[in-house]
Amino acid sequence: MKILILPTVEAVTKHAARRLARQLKRKPHSVLGLATGGTMDRLYAALPAMVAEEGAQIEQMRSFNLDEYVGLSGDHPQSYRHYMATRFGVPLGVDLARMALPCGDAPDPAAEAARYEAAIAEAGGIDLQLLGIGQNGHIGFNEPTSSLRSRTRIKTLTRSTVAANARYFDRPEDVPTRAITMGIATILDAREVLLLATGAAKAEALAAAIEGPLAAASPASALQLHPKATVLCDEDAAAALR
Ligand code: F6R
């Protein structure tokens, strides 16, 4: 695992945006694995300028998102499909049909998870997978105790994750408690992985992922098994590293 500690969140954001733009410049048909959340918000906001600066082409990429809430339709303002359309697809001019996410309102969520896993394989796999990290060490919505061999499936979110997500919903009872998420083995299949972590709240989870044992209690520690994983973090998130 390669660890790159930069001084600030801004530096992390800029570095990641450049990395993504260069991936698209080198391989315009890249299949990207994308994430949502506050960390990705900053990255996606920086991307249009960086794509222009690097002279990258973004129209031909395809993407698969890590996860989607079970029970939310794609036009729900808090669905990840809506997030990706407004933060990534529309500002960058990417045809939304090229951006895949699990369907949160599929009548049979388990079948939808299996279909999604197969669709990633049919696309030839993921070239570059972006990841954030939860305060409990989750990647995607692979909460602690997720099997290291897991594939795309339904996961019940932990209380701490539901609480962290509550900031996006009007009422606590509206926060979804289940998601369809790529599994840990699905994530490890990506040819390259880039995990971003910023802020002191991520310090303990990051230290466990990088320096702790490979353990289901720290899903992100599975990246220790990946031959081409980079962790990009700011000094606050790196504070608990030895
Ligand atoms: C969301 C996802 C999550 C987030 C993680 C960090 O698609 O996969 O694993 O990356 O919860 O979220 P933020 O960046 O909001 O702290």
UniProtKB/TrEMBL annotation:
Catalytic activity as recorded in UniProt: alpha-D-glucosamine 6-phosphate + H2O = beta-D-fructose 6-phosphate + NH4(+)
Query: Any idea where the Glucosamine/galactosamine-6-phosphate isomerase domain is?
Result: 9-225
**Which residues are named in the active-site annotation?**
D67, N136, H138, E143
What is the top-level taxon of the source organism? Bacteria
Name the pathway.
Amino-sugar metabolism; N-acetylneuraminate degradation; D-fructose 6-phosphate from N-acetylneuraminate: step 5/5
Q: Which SUPFAM superfamilies match?
A: NagB/RpiA/CoA transferase-like (SSF100950)
Q: Which UniProt keywords apply?
A: Allosteric enzyme, Carbohydrate metabolism, Hydrolase
Q: Which CDD domains match?
A: GlcN6P_deaminase
Q: Which GO BP terms, alphabetically?
A: carbohydrate metabolic process; glucosamine catabolic process; N-acetylglucosamine catabolic process; N-acetylneuraminate catabolic process
Under the heading InterPro entries, the entry gives:
Glc/Gal-6P_isomerase, Glucosamine6P_isomerase, Glucosamine6P_isomerase_CS, NagB/RpiA_transferase-like
Q: Name one GO molecular function term.
A: identical protein binding
The UniProt record lists the EC number as 3.5.99.6
For this protein, the record's Pfam families field holds: Glucosamine_iso
User: What's the family?
Assistant: Belongs to the glucosamine/galactosamine-6-phosphate isomerase family. NagB subfamily.
**HAMAP family named in the record:** GlcN6P_deamin (MF_01241)
Q: What role is this protein assigned?
A: Catalyzes the reversible isomerization-deamination of glucosamine 6-phosphate (GlcN6P) to form fructose 6-phosphate (Fru6P) and ammonium ion.
**What protein name applies here?**
Glucosamine-6-phosphate deaminase
Its gene name is nagB
